[in-house]
Structure formats: structure tokens, C-alpha cells
């Protein structure tokens, strides 16, 4: 009698192995590529004096606003998120720009995440249905062979 504790033959087919290799290759490329990009950014920046809003208390003069195209290229504070707020440091009375995260941007990121999770749910649900049908077909084929052998 055959054991049911074995790897399905479909998982060892070249097409399935190629799909798995492609998927994990893309995942690792995404992870290691992001790590390399962030490492390049940290080594390329020059050591600068810390902004006053990191060292002392500050008052927000202008709320978080989207940077213009020109400011996004010229101001270092705009490069990080694309949004900036103007702050006034209390001790030094110095006005500086501080990078910030917009509520609108956060909402867009949230809905992108939700859409990605919904898409993954649909993909894996379809995969479960397909696999279940395949296993049902194999089971009925096995029963048919057992009945024919009697």
C-alpha cells in the first residue's frame, strides 16, 4: 500500500520548479536590492550638522505640504517623503524645513496595501480550489482503479 506522506509529483515538475525559482528570485532581488540602495544612499551623503528640530523643541509654522518639483530636487528635506513642513526652533529662533508624512500619502499607501492583500487572497483562493479539484480527481481515479481490480 502506498503512503500518502510524500511530495506531490506536480511540485517536482520543471514548470512548478521554474515558477518557484522565479518567485523567490524576484523576492530576494527586491529585498537585497532595497538593502543595497539604502546602503548606497547612506554612504553617499556627507556628514552634516544635525538640524535644530532634532536637538531642541520646535513650533510648526506651516503644516505638512507637498513639495514643488523644484523644491523636491533642491531641498534635502523634500527628497525623503516629498512632503515638508516649516518649523521654528524655540531656543535658536531658526526656521528650517522638516520632512513629514502626509495623511493623504498614508491613506494611499494603506489602500495600495489593502489592494495587494485582496489580490493575494484571490490568487491563493483560486490556487486552493484548483489543487482541491486536482486531488479530488486523483482520489476518484484511485477509487476507480481499485473497483476495476476487483
UniProtKB/TrEMBL annotation:
Keywords: Cell cycle, Cell division, Cytoplasm, Cytoskeleton, Membrane, Mitochondrion, Mitosis, Signal, Transmembrane, Transmembrane helix. It is found in: Cytoplasm, Cytoskeleton, Microtubule organizing center, Centrosome; Cytoplasm, Cytoskeleton, Spindle; Membrane; Mitochondrion. One of its GO terms (biological process) is mitotic cytokinesis. GO terms for cellular component: centrosome; membrane; midbody; mitochondrion; spindle. The chain crosses the membrane at residues 16-37, 109-130. InterPro entries: JTB. The keyword Cell division applies. The keyword Disulfide bond does not apply. Pfam families: JTB (PF05439). It is a single-pass type I membrane protein. Interacts with AURKA, AURKB, BIRC5 and INCENP. May be a component of the CPC at least composed of BIRC5/survivin, CDCA8/borealin, INCENP and AURKB/Aurora-B. Belongs to the JTB family. Required for normal cytokinesis during mitosis. Plays a role in the regulation of cell proliferation. May be a component of the chromosomal passenger complex (CPC), a complex that acts as a key regulator of mitosis. The CPC complex has essential functions at the centromere in ensuring correct chromosome alignment and segregation and is required for chromatin-induced microtubule stabilization and spindle assembly. Increases AURKB activity. Inhibits apoptosis induced by TGFB1. Overexpression induces swelling of mitochondria and reduces mitochondrial membrane potential. This is Protein JTB. It comes from Fundulus heteroclitus (Killifish).
Amino acid at each position: 500500500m502506498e503512503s500518502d506522506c510524500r511530495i506531490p509529483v506536480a511540485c517536482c515538475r520543471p514548470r512548478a520548479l521554474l515558477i518557484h525559482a522565479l518567485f523567490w528570485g524576484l523576492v530576494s532581488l527586491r529585498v537585497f536590492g532595497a538593502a543595497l540602495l539604502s546602503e548606497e544612499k547612506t554612504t553617499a551623503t556627507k556628514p552634516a550638522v544635525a538640524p535644530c528640530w532634532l536637538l531642541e523643541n520646535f513650533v510648526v509654522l506651516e503644516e505638512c505640504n507637498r513639495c514643488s518639483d523644484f523644491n523636491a530636487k533642491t531641498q534635502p528635506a523634500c527628497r525623503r517623503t516629498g512632503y515638508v513642513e516649516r518649523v521654528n526652533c524655540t531656543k535658536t529662533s531658526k526656521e528650517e524645513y522638516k520632512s513629514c508624512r502626509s495623511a493623504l500619502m498614508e491613506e494611499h499607501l494603506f489602500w495600495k496595501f489593502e489592494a495587494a492583500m485582496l489580490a493575494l487572497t484571490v490568487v491563493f483562493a483560486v490556487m486552493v480550489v484548483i489543487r482541491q479539484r486536482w486531488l479530488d480527481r486523483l482520489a476518484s481515479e484511485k477509487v476507480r482503479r481499485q473497483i476495476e481490480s476487483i
